[in-house]
Amino acid sequence: MSDHASDFVLQAISFDTLEGWKDDDPSGLFEVMRSCRRQITDVKPYRTGSLGLSSEDLLPLLADAEDFTPSSPASARAFFETHCRPFLIRRKDGNSGFVTAFYEPDIDVSARPDEIFRFPFYRRPDDLIDLHDANRPAELDKAYAFGRLHEGRVTAYPDRCAIDQGFLEGRGLEIAWAKSKVDVFFVHVQGAARLRYEDGRIGRITYAAKAGHAFSAIGKLLIDRGEIDRAEISMQAIRVWLARNPERVDEVLWHNRSYIFFRDAPVADSRAGPIAAAKVPLLAGRSLAVDRMIHTFGFPFFIRAESLTHLDQGRPFRRLMLALDTGSAIVGPARGDIFTGSGDMAGEGAGTVRNDADFTILIPNAAAGRFD
């Protein structure tokens, strides 16, 4: 799926026909919307995706949400019904949308390496540069957003295999060390983690940059090799396979050449979610990672996934969410990643989400006229 608008259409619908809408309670979104408004007005607007919706299009909605406190689920829904119009995202290839989920792992770490804590989380190296059309070498695909500047020459940055084998050692880039290479790998996939130090201190890291290589799903690799049945694939199933095949761990993990660098991400309220790409704390169950080449952060999406039932006590997943994050595996107009929260329970919920879903974007009234 490319990021071109010709691959999909927006179909105007009504809230009355939006299945599941009348049972949802989006009251928790208003605090997050206030945070988005502060980010846009006080720091900088979000980048406009190819759909053409901008932070400026979003601001009237956020301004009206500033002083609004819903008195009930119905009043929260009425706010959106008054200020927005719903548009179903329809892919022209006829396929439905698709959701997965992510979470913020809790990882035991040490501030110093030893025989047990041997696997580092790295900060962004100083020879990693952002690439754009003016400085990207001809031999590097346009998908490379980062590269290495060394002795005046720009090249691809070393990949996961090279970094795991010591490319960055001795440069003082380590934030902390974990006990498991597999744990570190899955933090790379999730893009954030809470770090539990031996002295009881709690730290937080979040995505800072990546080496630039394309993300390659190791789950797909294991399916293609016949190691795990497609119907059984999940984060948990992958972890079980890796634990049973320790001699093949490096080979499988190195298949995903993508490598993530982190930064410390202190949060004043430890109960708040991690700060992700939209630079506001994620709200569990209400935050969505989207393809930022197409979509713009801060916009509301109603996600309906009839087959996804384990996140809502057996009921189909039907919730209004805000687009607040992105990820290299999140590609396409109706592709999303649901944030389930922090810790092991959230990980259990996230690891098995692979479901067809309908994506309906709510567009503020003034901008909605452009899409009729």
UniProtKB/TrEMBL annotation:
<dbReference type="InterPro" id="IPR010611">
    <property type="entry name" value="3D_dom"/>
</dbReference>
<dbReference type="Pfam" id="PF06725">
    <property type="entry name" value="3D"/>
</dbReference>
<protein>
    <recommendedName>
        <fullName>peptidoglycan lytic exotransglycosylase</fullName>
        <ecNumber>4.2.2.n1</ecNumber>
    </recommendedName>
</protein>
<feature type="domain" description="Lytic transglycosylase MltA">
    <location>
        <begin position="106"/>
        <end position="263"/>
    </location>
</feature>
<dbReference type="InterPro" id="IPR036908">
    <property type="entry name" value="RlpA-like_sf"/>
</dbReference>
<dbReference type="Pfam" id="PF03562">
    <property type="entry name" value="MltA"/>
</dbReference>
<keyword id="KW-0961">Cell wall biogenesis/degradation</keyword>
<keyword id="KW-0456">Lyase</keyword>
<dbReference type="InterPro" id="IPR026044">
    <property type="entry name" value="MltA"/>
</dbReference>
<dbReference type="InterPro" id="IPR005300">
    <property type="entry name" value="MltA_B"/>
</dbReference>
